[in-house]
Amino acid sequence: MKKTIKRLISLVAAVCLLLPSVVYARHGDGGYEGGISSGEAPGKTQYEYQEVCFLSGEPVVLTGTLTVKKTIKQNTISTTYTYELQNIDKSASLRRTLTHRSILTEKDNGQIIEEVYLTGRPSETVRIGNTTYTLSSYDFTKSSLLDPNPAIHYFAGNLWGKKIYRASGGNVSSGTVIVEVTGNYYGYDQYWGNTEVQTLKYLIQSQLRKGNIIDRWGGTADVVISASTSQELKYIKNEPEVMSFEGGYLLEQKNSSIMEYDCRLPEFDSSGISTGKMIRTQDSLKIESFPVQKRLPVPQLNHLRGHPQEEYINKLFSLEVFKGNGSKFNPSSYMTRAEFTAALVEAAKEVPSDLTDAKGTQSVLNASSAARTPATATARYTALRGRKTEPEVVSPFLDVSVDDIYFSQIESAYKRGLVTGVLGNIFKPNEYITVAEALTAFINALGLENLAPNPVPVTTFRDNDEIPLYARKAVYVAEKTGIIEGDKNGYLRPNSELTKGQAAQLLSRFIDYMRQDIRRDFREHIVNYY
């Protein structure tokens, strides 16, 4: 499906939280110095932080705080990181301050190129035992490609850095330690959760004068970092029996960061001089932040007790994907295209964004994106546009009036690329949605149609030949990702019309994929944790 508007990019944390149940973006909230942080939390710019230092020839775990401050002006974002870390057992401490400047360039296809450089004069002082390592120079560059899709934004990038430290103190009279790092990072940002994975390779070269000896040694370290924010949905049954409702859903947001490191560093003799033997050390660190919880409303669905799709319907009313009076909900009636589109807009929410520039003006890639609900301060990639007078509202479809109760949702879904018309500018809002149409909308939202092989992918469903040509790729991806399964006989029945109960089950599965499964796919391929 062709995108009709450019996407507002939101990938990193910034200023404030407006709703406690909305996910924060993770991109860069731990910096790019090889450490992990507790991630963003309501009203906080200072986070718990851990890092492993290899300067002395042994891995030293440092813990403390990371303070992040961001400013945005037009297509440039400045981020200042301040680290205050220590390890009492090793008599070690680290103080570091540096500022990254990100320059953002939007391409014709809607993708964003980000280029990051250091600005100002970075400062860093590391003390391990009686030896002090002072940063004398730091070269750093980072470049990212960001691909915004209707409900999720993907990014991938590379970084390179080189630090030179001057060492003195203890048995070290002079010398330098050079640390060079190369790395890749991948991730995504969306309403229901986000993940960033970094893979970093360090080369450490030390040349220190210790008394009359010049001690030269080299070592390596591989560091893998995975940081994510997720939303867990739990049903809490009330313990007292005498209440007006039996229980309800709790939406709980958690931040989790893990690091695995594998280093090869020299053995040192009793005089502190390196030997020819290398020692391999492997370990891991983990930080989890306190959960942010929100109780969800309880719908009136007593008439559905025992219904096969009761759980899915209850969940979607609690999440307000389904709206209105639940007591009137009939799971056996068929769902219209307009009703499904309204629910899809709520299930496949836009990536939250609410960052403002230094003058207090909201920065957007497209003026139409400025009207989105300010859910959380996670905007990262933006370009400044001035405020403009709202144009006259015109429906994108001849058969959808601007006065229709579903007009705003249909218009939003069309602009975001979630749905198209049946025939050009004809939407047919009152026709019933089919399985094939619903699955196509899901994969459009995720932007994953390219996972299907060309020219015509084949699914494992026994009625594969009945899948409409326009839906072949989407259905293939939906099966591959586990969003859809066939019935007990292996049939999909792609052209069958969806009842509201069946639509609830599909929408619930789609949300669960965005909340859980996509995060597991990112993590399990790089870090042995999920």
In short:
The protein contains six helices and 14 strands. The chain has 530 residues and is mostly beta strands. It folds into two domains: 36-292; 335-521, no CATH class.
Protein model, in words:
The chain has helices at 310-318, 337-347, 407-416, 435-446, 472-481, 500-524, and strands at residues 36-37, 46-53, 60-73, 76-87, 92-106, 112-128, 131-148, 152-168, 174-190, 193-210, 213-237, 247-268, 274-288, 292-295. It is mostly beta strands and 530 residues long. It folds into 2 domains: 36-292; 335-521, no CATH class. Strands 1, 2, 3, 4, 5, 6, 7, 8, 9, 10, 11, 12, 13 and 14 form a 14-stranded antiparallel beta sheet that branches. Strand 10 (193-210) and strand 11 (213-237) form a beta hairpin. Helix 4 crosses helix 5. It is elongated and about 90 Å long.
End-to-end separation = 32 Å
Structural class: mainly beta
Number of domains: 2
Overall pLDDT, averaged?
86
Provide a count of the helices.
6
Describe how the helices and strands are arranged.
Layout: E1 36-37, E2 46-53, E3 60-73, E4 76-87, E5 92-106, E6 112-128, E7 131-148, E8 152-168, E9 174-190, E10 193-210, E11 213-237, E12 247-268, E13 274-288, E14 292-295, H1 310-318, H2 337-347, H3 407-416, H4 435-446, H5 472-481, H6 500-524
Antiparallel strand pairs: 1-2, 2-3, 3-4, 4-5, 5-6, 6-7, 7-8, 8-9, 9-10, 10-11, 11-12, 12-13, 12-14
